[in-house]
Amino acid sequence: MWRPCGVIDETYEQDLAIVRTFPQWTLTVAALGALALLPAYVSGVTLNTVNHIAITIVALHGVNILTGLTGQITLGQAAFMAIGAYSMEMMVRYWGLSFWIATPIAMLITGVAGVIIGLPSLRIKGFYLAMATLAAQFIVPWIIVNVRPDLTGGTDGLTVSPPSIGGLQLTSQESIFYLCATVAVFSTVFARNIARSRYGRAFIAIRDNDIAAEIMGIAVVRYKLLSFFLCSLYAGLAGCLYAIWMRGISVEHFTLHESIWYLGMLIVGGMGSVVGVILGAIMIRSLTILVTYIGPWIAVFLPPGTGTVLELGLGPIVFGVVVLAFLIYEPHGLARIWERFKAFYRLWPYSY
Amino acid sequence: MGFQKVMEALSNQKVTPRLASLSGVSLSFHGVKVLTNVSVDILQGELLALIGPNGAGKTSVVNCMSGFYRPGSGQILFEGKDITPLRPYHRFKLGISRTFQNIELYEGLSVLENLMSARHNMMSYGVLAAGLYLGKARKQEIEHREIVEDIIDLLELEAIRKSKVGSLAYGLRKRVDLGRALAGQPKLLLLDEPMAGMNTEEKEDMARFILDVRELWKTTMVIIEHDMGVVMDISERVVMLDFGVKVVEGSPDEVKNNPKVIAAYLGIEKQEESSK
Ligand SMILES: Nc1ncnc2c1ncn2[C@@H]1O[C@H](COP(=O)(O)OP(=O)(O)OP(=O)(O)O)[C@@H](O)[C@H]1O
Ligand SMILES: [Mg+2]
To answer: Which domain holds residue A270?
Structure first.
């Protein structure tokens, strides 16, 4: 990690601090302040996107813990979000629990489901494990649609009524923004801390060399499952936020397509990097929006017929190209570019 | 009867303060015998050298001790207990640590983090504390960081403590591998060719570190080493394996003049010369 010259830690306590210098503190406070004021100078549509990004960040932290840190590929994050969203809504709907109580329970349910889906990881790795998590991506929606459609609403899904806090209903994008942003910030701090704790080291040890990890004191089985648990906890939380943001849930929202996009965002952001999670989510979600605006514009110049095809295909194409470009040119993602920029900025104008 | 057994065990312990032993260990892969009825005692506080030509089964002995290989028959004992059925991480917790012939570090972690990872089980803070990084988590991280920094100083790794291991040169990585093994505060340290592939200067450094550690912590060690000069210099007892069988055991002086050792090592030297 790069730091300004002359900043030397005198105690390990100082060395542990994430935000060290006065300018860093000022920047952090300023950034949080700007975030808090965002609804004041941003329109509803943009805020809607910002909320989507915040929810994505929460879900992506989970994928990052499991795939980025522990090295276990998952193609099932969207399915786990569905588990979180549906169990929350059903507890609210049928048991009359409040959103605030149902959410933590839904997170735990999702966590347990994650551990169950993670069990194959004890025997299989890589591609085969990806297939096992892919199974979750097919099984979960099937269960939701077919087993008790009277309770889950089948293919129609369920509407979600906005939760209220202290008499205030979270109906507007502004109010949902404050919830999502708070949760996203807290999730980020939590994920960052996990990554630098003894758990994060154990996860990375398993990713980098699972045999050595086991020999050097890491109970690999336990920590793989813990990683699945944490990943799903984040998925559950993101699912609950998604439900109130959408004001409704259906299996259409939690598709394999979404799960793959999460992996793509992680690649673009930088595997295993907490900053990368934020940058990757912002980049891919904004790009998607951009493409939906630009698509029709380009379509005008194309022969009739091909236009709509392109319009529909443009999103996935751009996504694919961007992910490929990062895989080839910067496998460490935006996080590495950001590090380089910071290093440059600090040394500027004396680069040595 | 019980009393007598206890007394026997106690007196046995006094006569031979064994820390660990392999007793009658045999190991084979797909019918190919790698170890045949190998029995080795590792005495409290000693530095035992394990020698033998390539493919003799030295690494396999270490793998059996650390639990990576499970012997087909025989037992592994540690501090008087049968640890044969225990998983590797459990043995590490009991105090059996090791380095690897081919350096098996966590490339994505820094030197510091590689060493800290070996202290995982000595810390007790939970996931929630870790996520909030308050109280217990912070306190334990600092406590253990101090111990790890001592090891970093001892092995002269200060300058690279924050470097990712993947970016380090071979000799340094070998040293980090030793550092991680030490960070586990082992009672028994198994060193699998810690000096392989090093130049004379690096070898001398490594030998110095090993002797420093012994002086500081009186750690019992088993070292696999091909350089007979080093073996004679630093070890107290030598065991030689050949084709998976223990063929020689004794003090360096006794072993030095053993015809089997001479044959094996002269053979190797001849091979090396002819290959040059
Ligand atoms: N996992 C394994 N599968 C198959 N054969 C193995 C395995 N591990 C070891 N062997 C075989 O067992 C024999 C002894 O190997 P081992 O690595 O213990 O030798 P060594 O004495 O450490 O040799 P070196 O000096 O080359 O490191 C070799 O013939 C090797 O091919
Ligand atoms: Mg070997």
So the answer is: 256-352
